[in-house]
Q: What sequence folds into this?
């Protein structure tokens, strides 16, 4: 298949505009029109992973972590990043990363952690704002239905579990058609008054082009009046971390044993166990210390994540138990998540899970 077919699908699962500013998700090496016959999936892209892709005749590597985070000023093989990119280019292997945009999805990295631990009724811990926009337009009464339906079909009008949401208010529009115009109603050179409906509806920022095209194609007027507003509203289905409930409450030791077993963690660094049972649990794959305040505010009894620094453990202040299971350990099932989704969409496409553990951290136990 064409590379664009699979990357477009991945970006429908986790739109690129949902990634953090520092991130570099998306197509890193390769061209959208390249023919792809097999893909290898891993958490990280290392030289070992590229060698595995070569050995297995995979000309696409899909990873969670981008091999290139910052701009490369030179490409001479001096660093492992440069060597990976050079080897991929020499062997015509495309590199694609799906990182914090997948972290932020309600069915993404953190949902996979919740599934692994049996956490139920999970929801986003820290929803993202500034992802929604509002469209306001004005339409003759008789054509309002067709315009609304076109906007809804393009992705507008979704609020939570509700679809086809809009607000409609009646009013009077005025205009005077000038020379060279072809007015749908009224006559050139004369001010016209038309009974119109003001339509308001929301949409996701990445759907703006589709929504605007739907508006312009369905609206009867030659010149369509509309306004687009950026909204600060939180999008509850997109954001960092998740929080949910264990099927039954557990004491601290039993909980840590469960986490260690289910997440295949060799070591768990944690704060002091508390007298209370653990029932509500927050999770964040990768480096999640920035979400500690949100986990406490959500009433979590425990927070599972990675990369906490020494002094940050003090910030728990006995509100909850921090369980740092390691960066790789917290995200290792992301590869399985990607394969499950891709196989469901493209059942005849050859996609393989790496045989290598790319965790750069070793444990002396």
A:
């Amino acid at each position: 298949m064409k590379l664009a077919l699979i990357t477009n699908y991945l970006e429908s699962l986790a739109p690129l505009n949902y990634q953090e500013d520092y991130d570099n998700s998306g197509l890193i090496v390769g061209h959208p029109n390249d023919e792809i016959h097999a893909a290898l999936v891993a958490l990280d892209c290392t030289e070992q992973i590229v060698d595995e892709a070569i050995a297995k005749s995979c000309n696409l590597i899909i990873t969670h972590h981008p091999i290139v985070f910052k701009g490369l000023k030179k490409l001479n093989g001096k660093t492992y990043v440069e060597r990976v990119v050079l080897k991929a280019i020499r062997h015509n292997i495309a590199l694609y990363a799906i990182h914090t945009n997948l972290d932020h999805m309600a069915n993404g990295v953190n949902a996979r952690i919740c599934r692994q631990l049996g956490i139920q009724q999970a929801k986003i811990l820290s929803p993202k704002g500034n992802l929604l926009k509002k469209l306001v337009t004005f339409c003759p009464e008789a054509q309002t239905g067709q315009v609304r339906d076109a906007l809804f079909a393009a992705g507008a009008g979704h609020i939570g579990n509700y679809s086809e949401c809009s607000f409609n208010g009646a009013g009077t529009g005025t205009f005077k058609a000038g020379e060279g115009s072809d007015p749908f109603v009224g006559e050139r050179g004369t001010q016209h008054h038309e009974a119109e409906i003001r339509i308001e509806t929301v949409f996701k920022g990445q759907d703006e082009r589709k929504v605007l095209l739907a508006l312009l194609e369905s609206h009867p007027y030659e010149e369509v009046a509309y306004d687009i507003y950026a909204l600060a509203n939180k999008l509850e289905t997109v954001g960092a971390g998740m929080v949910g409930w264990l099927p039954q409450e557990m004491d601290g030791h039993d909980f840590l044993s469960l986490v260690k077993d289910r997440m295949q963690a060799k070591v768990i660094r944690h704060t002091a166990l508390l007298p209370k049972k653990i029932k509500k649990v927050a999770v964040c794959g990768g480096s999640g210390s920035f979400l500690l305040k949100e986990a406490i505010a959500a009433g979590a009894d425990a927070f599972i994540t990675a990369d906490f620094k020494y002094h940050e453990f003090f910030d728990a202040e006995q509100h909850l138990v921090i369980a740092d299971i390691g960066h790789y350990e917290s995200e290792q099932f992301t590869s399985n998540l990607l394969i499950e989704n891709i196989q469901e969409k493209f059942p005849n496409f050859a996609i393989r899970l790496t045989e290598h553990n790319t965790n750069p951290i070793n444990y002396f136990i």
Observations:
- The chain has a mean pLDDT of 97.
- The first strand starts at residue 26 and ends at 29.
- Residues 50 and 88 are 7 Å apart (CA to CA).
